Amino acid sequence: MEPEKDNQQKSRRNFVQQGLKFGLLTAASGALLAKVFGKSESLNSEETMEVMSTDGTLMQVPVSAVEHAHEKKSDYNPREGFPNRKFVMVVDLAKCRNARKCQSSCNKNHYITGENAWIKIYKMQDNEKSAPYWQPTLCQHCDEPACVKVCPVDATFKRRDGIVLIDNNRCIGCRFCMAACPYSVRVFNWSDPWQGEEVEQAEYTADYAGVPSQKGTVDKCDFCPHMIDKGELPHCVSACPNDVFSFGDMYEDTVTNGSGQSFKLSKLLKDRAGYRLMESLGTEPSVYYLPPSDRIVDFEEGLENYTEFQSVDKPQEP
Amino acid sequence: MNTAYEKMINDLAPKKFSWKGNVWVAFLVLIILTGIYSYVQQLKHGLVITGMRDYALWGIYISNFVFFVAVSLVGSLITAILRLSDVHWSTPLTRIAEIIAVAAIIMAGITIIIDMGRPDRMLNLFLHGRLQSPIIWDVIVISTYLVLSILFLYYPLLPDFTILSKYFNKNTRSTKWYRVLSLNWTGNEKQSKIYSRSIKALSVLIIPVAFAIHTVTAWLFETTYRPGWDSTNFGPYFVAGAFVAGSSAVIVVMYVLRKSYNLEDYITDHHFDLMGKILVMLSLLYLYFNINEYLMPIYKSTEEEATHLRSLFTGEYAWLFWVVIIGGLVLPVIIMLFRGGRKPLPLFIVSLAVMACAWWKRYLIVIPTLSHPFLPIEGVPESWRHYSPTWMEWTITAATLASALLIITLLVRFLPIIPIYETAEERGLLEDQSVNKSL
After folding, report:
1. What are the Cα distances from residue A197, in Å, to A8, A194, A214?
2. Same structural domain, A120 and A241
3. Same-domain status, A99 and A13
4. Hey, is A127 helix, strand or coil?
5. Residue B379 is nearest to which of A176, A217, A307, comparing CB atoms?
């Protein structure tokens, strides 16, 4: 268990470091932020500084905007979502070989300490004659979310940018959303999550699920708004060694995979006959799947990583 | 002096417990204390002390809640429906039915709080309540039903309280209480008019609310996509089952009370006979809904439904399923079709079986569905695939059942179990007694 513990401590350290790096990162993406969040009006009146944006170009941004972002990300409303965006994910089943890097990255970055990972890679086979395949499954961020419909206290909610989140400060723990979700993506904090002091003392916002998790409330995949805010891809997308996931904005009709390749969403879905899970239920998911045909790797390769009873490396309880 | 009337008051006035009663109360308190201990552990450590996990996300707390809601419906059946149909034989049973209804609905409310992961945030239901959620519907109808049930218990008690305050003529504390609670009932014409009107109005009001509480409880499940819950039959199926559970509860309580208070003059063999007939009718109705609920899906056998139903018919839950259907429905109906089966003792035993099976029936409605989600269960410990309640969960559940029995017991201790005034009225004892004037 020692290496695991090390790992955990490392991840905690990472978290602190992340906080430090945050300033630099936000400075870097400050230009983008300023552009997106309409702070550009102050550009000409204030002192500016030179930063490099994510695409490598140097830009002038007002010092105040950078400092503001440094304190508290961007000041968008986590309940409303990013204005004029609609997030979408594409999962290419032809590429998945159950490497499980998406899962371990998600577990690590959301400090998941329960037994049930938020992202699962199911071993699927639709019928006996058909080929088996691996199906990474995360919250589908439905446009008609069954979970949101039944929540009695508006703790789980749908944002304008398509993301479904949970306000863990409001959740009463009735678990009706878990019963309602047909994709089994919601997990419950049956006991104290023991995520370590740094995470537990972090300031809670609904748009960074798991930081911290709360006993007696529901958790799930949050589509990583905290990464989007930094202009980065969700953890699972960038962690996948096979570019199974692409993430993007439906309004821009573009999705980008972990290697940075971008695709035209509408064309991709047409060419590859994209589909959504349990379409017949009318939940209108935001996650599209590309069928597991013409596969790049053998299904069998994934079997070595297959663990039926474990999806999270169990940390030691204090 | 009308001796028959005097004797009746003497028979029906609340009596102090014998040693048996005290032992019974002590026994219930002990169970409740064990449950409280477990609940404190649950508050401390979270719901991890239960057998529930992410797949079996609801357990015996919820099935027990459904059971309580079911039992509470009987108040409306025995008191309201029979009263409005001008049936008089059931008058001596109305108070028992109402006491059971009040105890059950109180415990239903408490049980649902026990199931909450964050009971400390209960107020959010009012601060942030969303009318679109079936849970809010349930909060609204259950609290409405609670108020109506308490009123329905209380109104017919007004004349009885006056009678009792005169009967216990010593100036004891209980006499004072009875006098205060009687709200100065004298039985004059004006009061009698308001009295009978209110009871009639309550009888009419409580029926739709009673149907609503159990229909909404059915909707808690029906509003999901899950096989086994996704059924348009669920509302009436739940209501029919509720009447079965509730009437058997009334039979059990009336048998025990008749035996311990020697009420053979008031709860007669004829009452058992008629209650037995009602239970047969209700059980057949419930059986009909069961056939609808299970037979049509298995005929079609869509993959999801078939997986679920196979686990009930021949799989993991088969043993429990058939005991509940045969032992809790089919056999009782056959036994009660015979006159001998409706005699007090056999009917009492049959009703106990029906009640126990009714509890497990709710278990079979809530739990098996959860172990057959649409996507496979993977990446969780083996133990998460099957739900089995922990002993702490059992002690908490036992404590809720014991609390319901304790509420019933305490109400029986302080209230006349048989409505004195109404029974006297029906027996024609009031006219020559001119009770109205003397009070």
Report:
1. 12, 8, 13
2. yes
3. no
4. coil
5. A307
Q: Give strand ranges (E) for B326-392.
A: none
In this structure, is residue B425 part of a structural domain?
Answer: no
List the Cα angle A304/A307/A309 in 5-degree steps.
165
Are the Cβ atoms of A171 and B118 closer than 8 angstroms?
yes
| Amino acid at residue number A257 | N
Q: Do A189 and B375 touch (CB under 8 A)?
A: no
Q: What is the pLDDT of residues A234-273, one digit of tens each?
A: 999 999 999 999 999 999 999 999 999 999 999 999 999 9
ipTM score for this prediction: 0.92
Secondary structure (3-state) at B190: helix
Chain B residues touching A124 at Cβ < 8 A: 376
The CA distance from B47 to B38, in Å, is: 11
Low-confidence ranges of chain B (pLDDT < 50): 433-439
Of B45, B117, B380, the CB nearest to A311: B380
Taking the C-alpha atoms of B1, B4, B9 and B15 in order, what is their torsion angle to the nearest 10 degrees? 120
Number of residues written out for chain A: 318
B236 located within any domain: yes
Q: Does residue A78 form part of some domain? A: no
Tell me, yes or no, whether A310 lies in a domain: no
Residue A102 and residue A52 share a domain: no
Chain A residues close to B376, C-beta within 8 Å: 122-124
- Reported in sequence order, the residue ranges of A53-198 that DSSP labels E, i.e. its strands, are 58-62, 87-92, 120-124, 133-137, 156-158, 164-166, 187-188
Closest to B141 in 3D by CA, of B199, B233, B76:
B76
Residues A119 and A96 in one domain: yes
DSSP B384: G
- The rounded mean pLDDT for chain B is 93
Mutate which of A122, A174, A178, A311 to test chain B, going by most B C-beta atoms within 10 A?
A174
Distance CA A130, CA A98 (A): 18
| Cα gap A297→B365, rounded to integer Å | 43
Q: Within this chain, do residues A206 and A67 fall inside the same structural domain, yes or no? A: no
Q: Who contacts B347 (Cβ-Cβ below 8 Å, separation ≥6)? A: B251, B255, B272, B275, B276, B279, B336, B341
For B121, the closest of A137, A154, A172 (CB atoms) is: A172
Q: Return the CATH number at A112.
A: 3.30.70.20
On whether residue A81 sits in a domain, the answer given is no
**Domain count for chain A:** 2
Percent of chain A with pLDDT strictly greater than 70: 78
In angstroms, rounded to a whole number, what is the distance separating the alpha carbons of residues B46 and B40? 10
A121 and A66 in a common domain? no
Nearest to A110 by CA among A174, A168, A45: A168
Hey, what are B107's tokens? 């415990």
Token pair, residue B355, equals: 């009640």
pLDDT in tens, A212-222: 999 999 999 99
Residue B424 structure tokens: 């006297």
Indicate the number of domains in chain B.
Answer: 1
Rounded CA-CA distance A201/A224 in Å is 20
Burial of A38 (0-12, 13-18, 19+ CB in 10 A): exposed
Residue pair B39/B390 in contact by the 8 Å Cβ criterion: no
Triad A246, A247, A249: Cα angle to 5°? 135
Looking up residue B23, the CATH number of its domain turns out to be 1.20.1630.10
Q: Indicate whether A97 and A38 sit together in one domain.
A: no
Domain that holds residue A34: 2-72
Domain-located, residue B430: no
> Is B10 within the bounds of a domain?
no
